[in-house]
Amino acid sequence: MSLKVYGIKNCDTVKKALKFLDTHAIKYEFIDFKSVKPTCAELQKWVSEAGIKKLFNTRSRTYRELNLKEIAQTQTEKIEWMCKEPLLIKRPIIDTGSKIIVGFDEEIYKKELL
Description:
The chain is of the alpha+beta class. Helix content is 44%, strand content 14%. It has six helices and four strands; from the N terminus they run E-H-E-H-H-H-H-E-E-H.
């Protein structure tokens, strides 16, 4: 199984996910949001598979700095924001080719990736 892992290298949650994959010798390609922004089409696909609540990171510093809590947002607006500001995307995103996994949960990883 060859995975694509999206995130940023200095994110603690991404570090946990990569450590899990390395420990279990699971091959992956890492795509850093800081150098390669996901396309709006990719984001749309992720939202349709995982849901906006899972994907839109309301705990990020970017979310707070942009005062997005103050703005009532539709799903479309949230996707537009994530297209502009990939740090608003909850990390990591793992694309198995057939499924999207958002965040790090060791039990889900064991079930879906091992």
